[in-house]
Design goal:
Number of strands: 18
CATH architecture of the largest domain: 3-Layer(aba) Sandwich
Number of domains: 2
Structural class: alpha/beta
Shape: globular
Largest sheet: 6 strands, mixed
Radius of gyration: 22 Å
Helix content: 10-25%
CATH topology of the largest domain: QueA-like
Strand content: 25-35%
Distance between the termini: 30 Å
Length: 420
């Protein structure tokens, strides 16, 4: 008797309530482990689950593997202003206004910049009102002003001006701001977070949240990877606060994915193309994975002549684009990445700047990534959907195993190696 196979549900129809689990508050790590590489590592290998530590990661990877890291650096995006009446206003700089083509350009602005922000105490701040903050840093003394310009659907538009005209906005944030810890860490950031909420290879400024899977890596781990002939390379995806955005819609069709900027060197794409068959490409973190998979789909768009360059000439990927394609007619990863390289060559672009809203959810088939290193994510989050897309219903076994075996959860918690 022929068995009937249930059709794969389109991600638009997924109910977020099906992707939840009970996460006690005491399992959320409020501080990092004393030593980065002694964090626990759950290893999921095609259904088999075991416990290790990050320092022994090389023992669970095959020689010739290629690990891809996100080298974004968290900026001090949290600013506090005191009103003349004494009340405090908190400005959380989410992402640049649309007038700038990318994060790097906005951070290099001098004198004035426009930023999309979340505001703590917004009801006490009137449109048009200017707040001031005196900054003293090193031998610098200057004034920072914030003006309430308007309100969008999910943000406030704030203009920021400073009197030290030689300084970039990145330098102003460094002087005046604080590292923005995730909202589920119920404490103020301290000096230790300035180091521990950055990866040791953080380079390109622009994130308001760390690519947390990379927080566990140390020089010792990198030495052990090299000794086993495991290669490493880097992409840049600037993590926005949208990574913490809860899915409030009942079904995913009504959830809008946040856009994030990616910045990839031509050499990285060439390196992936050189990877021999059978040697895995493994992103470290969901941001690295979204970047790699976005590269494939951007190549597909170029092959089909469907590229979207409507914003400052930057390629853009919509969250539903992959799910509108017929699987049997899709190009190979080699064809897609080659098309991307050829386009960059014609455009004389040594780097690819793009914006991605890619949603990886059950029904998605990875095109480049063959395993993933990642932390444990919040219930009913798009990041949990990503894990479920990779290992199916086994995500429940993985998370229950982590709960039963004293793993620490979320940004400062432990992590996992998922091989499907």
């Amino acid at each position: 008797m022929r068995q009937l196979v249930a059709p794969i549900m389109h991600p638009r129809d997924l109910s977020i309530s099906d992707y939840t689990y009970a996460l006690p508050d005491e399992r959320i790590a409020p501080v990092p482990a004393p030593n980065r590489d002694e964090s626990k590592l759950l290893v999921y290998d095609k259904g088999i689950i075991s416990t290790s530590i990050y320092r022994e990661l090389d023992q669970h990877l095959a020689a010739g593997s290629l690990l891809i890291f996100n080298n974004t650096r968290v900026v001090e995006a949290r600013l506090l202003f005191r009103k003349p009446t004494g009340g405090m206003i908190e400005i959380f700089c989410l992402q640049p206004d649309v007038r700038y083509p990318d994060v790097a350009t906005a951070l290099q602005q001098t004198r004035e910049v426009y930023w999309q922000c979340m505001i703590g105490g917004a009801s006490k701040w009137k449109p048009g009102q200017v707040l001031q903050k005196e900054i003293s840093a090193g031998n610098k003394n200057y004034t920072l002003e914030a003006r309430y310009e308007g309100k969008g659907d999910d943000h406030f538009l704030i203009s920021l001006k400073w009197s030290e005209e030689s300084l970039s906005f990145a330098e102003v944030l460094h002087d005046a701001g604080a590292i923005p810890l995730p909202p589920y860490i119920k404490r103020m950031a301290d000096e230790g977070d300035s180091e521990r909420y950055q990866t040791i290879y953080a380079k390109e400024e622009g994130s308001v949240a760390a690519p947390t899977a990379g927080l566990h890596f140390t020089d010792t781990i990198f030495q052990r990877l090299r000794a086993k002939n495991i290669d490493t390379d880097y992409v840049t995806l600037h993590v926005g606060a949208g990574t913490f955005k809860p899915v409030k819609a009942a079904v995913m069709e009504d959830h809008t994915m946040h856009a994030e900027y990616i910045d990839v060197d031509r050499s990285l794409i060439e390196r992936i193309l050189q990877q021999p068959a059978g040697h895995a490409v493994i992103p470290v973190g969901t941001t690295s994975m979204r970047t790699l998979e976005s590269l494939y789909w951007l190549g597909v768009m170029l092959i089909k002549g469907e590229e979207d360059l409507s914003a400052h000439g930057v390629l853009q990927l919509d969250q539903w684009y992959p799910y509108a394609q017929e699987e049997q007619s899709l190009p190979s990863s080699r064809e897609a990445l080659t098309a991307l390289l050829e386009w960059m060559q014609k455009q004389q672009r040594p780097q690819l700047l793009a914006s991605t809203r890619l949603l990886i959810a059950p029904g998605y088939k990875p095109k480049i990534a063959q395993a993933l290193i990642t932390n444990f994510h919040q219930p009913q989050s798009t990041l949990l959907l990503l894990v479920a897309a990779l290992i199916g219903e086994d995500w429940r076994k993985v998370y229950q195993y982590a709960l039963d075996n004293d793993f620490r959860f979320l940004s400062y918690g432990d992590g996992s190696l998922l091989c499907w």
